[in-house]
Amino acid sequence: MKKVIIVTLAVSILISGLFANGQTDDGRKSIGIAMPETHVARWVTDGEALKANAEAMGYKAEVAFGDADQTKQNKQISDFITKGVDLIVVASINTGVNTALAEAAAEGIEIISYDRLLMDSADFNYYITFNLKKVGELQGKSIVDALDLDNSSEVKYISLFAGSPTDNNAYFFYDGAMEVLNPYITSGKLEVVGPYPVTSADKDNFNRIATEGWRAELAKERMENLLSGDAEEFVLDAVLAPNDPVGRAIIEACSNDSKYDTTAKLPIVTGQDGELATVQYIRDEKQHMTVFKDSRLLAKATIQLADSILRNTAIDVPGTVKTEFDTNLKMVETYLLTPILVTKENYEEVIIESGYYTADQIK
Fold first, then answer.
1. Domains along the chain with CATH numbers
2. Which end of the chain, N or C, is surrounded by fewer C-beta atoms within 10 Å?
3. Per-residue pLDDT tens for 30-67?
4. Whole-model pTM?
């Protein structure tokens, strides 16, 4: 019996050693995937796509969702470190992740900042995302075009929403949109109802329009307060919404107001992520647009980047533009994919024909 125990213990130690050296029991290298939450559907899709791409390229992969709790995500990252992963893909919740990043870096584990830039950290070298500013520009331009602001002499009314103040991406989205919209506000063609940060640098007003944690219920509550407050005497022509769940929440709040109780009366509402429910809203003319960021392409590009890093070869990520982003502590190598504007006119081509959703799903 003692011999069996000794042999079992020896095997356990050997396997643990293999993981600690970044090798699984079958010799494959491993990738940990830390996603921030599940209440925004795209993170579930992203996590699954990253795992599938990693496994297709021969890596062992595990995905964990932080449930919008940075303490929980840090524990998940620590677990990846304990398991001896070679690389971790991280989309964080807030800068509280930095202690976990430092722990991973100290173990020599490579880190890819995924979609959300890991701010105030010097413990990673790579960032991959879509062109964030372009996302906002597409949102802003869609409002300009839908309201025909270049030709209209009638003043149009708009309210502004932004993403989570703990997500650095939210600032890029907002500033991209406002670069398009500000000239129309300055000229008097657009009038802002409610707080108006000209740019995200106006932190006080930005925080007044921000949506903590990208929580749709918070956006709905704020929209309801606007409708009974600042916007009570106005019929809004547009609402700048940072993403799809926030956009749908705004539409729901408007739909419960007698001034906006039909699709014909709803304001132009923006979004991003191409969520199924939003594509259905676009089809039904409840929501004007979304910005489609094909997570299949981002996941594939991320694992291609990870593969180059792990094999220590020249980095080649097809379909991306290489640049640099500043974490406030260092410049990191950045790879940008191109987002796509989706409206009722092209959703079938962009969403269905590409196979992202089927026609039956959108029914």
1. 2-124+294-336 (3.40.50.2300), 132-293 (3.40.50.2300)
2. N
3. 999 999 999 888 899 999 999 999 999 999 999 999 99
4. 0.85
